[in-house]
Amino acid sequence: MEPLIRGRYVARLAAGPEDLSRALALRGAVFRNGADDHDDLDERCQHVLVESGDAVCATFRVALLPSGAALGQGYAARFYDLSPLAADPRPFAEMGRFCLAPGTADPDVLRLAWAAMTRLVDAAGAGRLIGCTSFAGADWTLHRAALALLAERHLGPVGLRPGRRAAEVVDYPALAGPVTDRRTALAGLPPLLRSYLGMGGWVSDHAVVDRDLDTLHVFTCVEVAGVPQARAASLRGI
To answer: What does the pLDDT look like over 20-75, one tens digit per residue?
Structure first.
């Protein structure tokens, strides 16, 4: 992937150990209060940095999997039973460890990150984009309004929803109740999840409690061919 430029920001692939260390430093600050966030999947992924000068404003990693049969090699399969997707012969792109530097508010950072992700998806010919999208804080009641919205409008097709694999899950469709304030519900969605949903994405019918990272996450899937045409053109035009 060639570097992408938007205003003062540049998105590019990590070029070596030094770049990976910079990505890991941001991940550690966001996910682990400064502790090391490196894991065994990092060596099998491509890493994207969005920079402004010497500062890393955002980062994420991408695992490119040749087909649904290879989903077990990815991160999401550690928490979800992905067998309903295993028969898909198309490549998958799994996005993970997405994070923004604390205090980052410029929407161009997120736009550029998604434009880079789009380039990688297109280059791989991926049919689906998947990932685990996290809410900060493992207590599901903190996210009740947003979870109610997911349950009401964004659950995946019954035949494709992942099964349960994690030790601690939340059956949020049964617990969250109805949407009482749509504005509050939308505000409670993490920016990454809002982006997924804006591209027509769907989510699992249960959430996973991750005590290690103190997060609550849902499996998220986007059918690449189903992304609204205007949104796809906008991302490819950056």
So the answer is: 999 999 999 999 999 999 999 999 999 999 999 999 999 999 999 999 999 999 99
Distance CA 238, CA 228 (A): 16
Residue 38 lies in a domain: no
Model pLDDT, residue 238:
86
- Tell me the residue range of the domain where 77 lies: 62-236
CB 187 within 8 A of CB 149: no
What element of type H or E holds 195? helix 191-198
Asked, for residue 199, whether it belongs to a domain, the answer is yes
Q: What is the DSSP letter of 91?
A: -
Amino acid letter for position 120: L
Question: Are the C-beta atoms of residues 128 and 73 closer than 8 Å to each other?
Answer: no
Instruction: Tell which residue, 97, 4, 76, 113, has the closest CA to residue 85.
Output: 76
Q: Could you tell me if residue 22 is inside a domain?
A: no
For the record, the structure tokens of 98 come out as 């997405």
pLDDT digits (tens, 9 = 90+) for 116-133: 999 999 999 999 999 999
Question: The pTM is what?
Answer: 0.95
Q: What is the mean pLDDT of the chain?
A: 97
Q: Does any domain span residue 181?
A: yes
* Structural domain count of the chain: 1
CB 130 within 8 A of CB 76: yes
Parallel, antiparallel, or unpaired for β 163-164 and 92-100? Answer: unpaired
